[in-house]
Amino acid sequence: MTISAIDTIMSHRSIRKFKNQKLSEEQIQTIVTAAQQASTSSHVMAYTIIGITDESIKEQLAEISGQPYVKDNGHLFVFCGDLHRVEQIGSNEERLAMQKSLESSEQFIVMTIDAALAAQNAAITAEGLGLGICFLGSLRNDVQKVNDLLRLPPRVIPLFGLAVGYPDQEPELKPRLPYEAVYHHNTYLQIEKQLPFIQQFDQELHDYYQIRTQNKRKDTWTEQMVRKFSNPIRMDVAPFLKMKNVNKQ
Ligand SMILES: Cc1cc2nc3c(=O)[nH]c(=O)nc-3n(C[C@H](O)[C@H](O)[C@H](O)COP(=O)(O)O)c2cc1C
C-alpha cells in the first residue's frame, strides 16, 4: 500500500537525529528532481541546490549553525536564491538592461519563494521515501561565511539548509495554530477576533511541551514569539544582500 501525499504531509515533524547512513545517489536524484518540478515564477527557476559531501565544509557549516544534525545526517542540501544564472545568459548589453530588475525587492521575493517551493517539494518527497528532514535557517548565523565556503557568485545567496536522512527519533507532531486564526474569509480577520484562538493555542502548546518526551519545558506560543521578536538576530543579512547586489531597490 502506498502512503498518499496528504498522509505524508500530515505526518510531518522535523527530525534532528539521524542514523549513520548516507542517502543513495538515486534517492538524492529523486529528491532534487522533485524539487525542480515545483511551480516557479515566470519559469525563472531562481534557485540552486548545493549538495554538501565534503566533510570539511560540512563541519564548518555545522559549526556556523551550532546544530550537530547539520553534520550528522544522510545528506545535506543548501538552498540558494539565484539570479546569477539568468543574468549571465545575457550579452553585456542585455545584462545592463537587466540590472535594475535583478536588484529589485520584487525579484528577491521571487527567488526566495522559488527556492522555498522547491525545498518543500524536496522535503515532502524525502518524507514520502520514508526519510526525515530538518530545515536549517541556522546557516544564516554567519551568512557571509557560508557564502564564502560555497563560493557563491554575485546575486546568489544562501537561504537555508535541508538535512535529510534516516530518522533515529520519533518526535510527536507539533501542534499548529487553530485553523480559524490562519484561514480568514474574504478580508483579514481582526486581531481581537484571532486572540481567543491564540489563547486556546497557547494552552495546547503549553500542554504539548509538558507531555512531550524530549526537551520538556514550560512555555506558550505567545511567550516564545515575544521573546523571539524582542531579540533581533542576523542583522548582518540586510547589508549582505546589498553586497550581493540583490534586494537593493
Ligand atoms: C526556513 C526554516 C528554517 C528552519 N531552521 C531550523 C534550524 O535552523 N534548526 C532547527 O532545528 N529547525 C529549524 N526549522 C524547523 C522548525 O523549527 C520547525 O519546522 C517548527 O518548529 C515546526 O516543527 P515541526 O517541523 O516538527 O512540525 C526551520 C524551519 C524552516 C521552515
UniProtKB/TrEMBL annotation:
NCBIfam families in alphabetical order: PRK10765.1 (NF008033)
Family statement drawn from the similarity comment of this UniProt entry: Belongs to the flavin oxidoreductase frp family.
Record's keyword annotation contains Oxidoreductase: yes
EC number(s) on file: 1.5.1.38
Name used for this protein in its record: Oxygen-insensitive NADPH nitroreductase
Biological classification of the source: Bacteria, Bacillati, Bacillota, Bacilli, Bacillales
Organism, scientific name: Virgibacillus salarius
One Pfam family in the UniProt entry: Nitroreductase
Nitroreductase domain span: 9-166
SUPFAM superfamilies: FMN-dependent nitroreductase-like (SSF55469)
Keywords: Flavoprotein, FMN, NADP, Oxidoreductase
GO molecular function: FMN reductase (NADPH) activity
Root EC class: oxidoreductase
Transmembrane feature ranges: none
InterPro entries per the UniProt record, alphabetical: Flavin_OxRdtase_Frp (IPR016446), Nitroreductase (IPR029479), Nitroreductase-like (IPR000415)
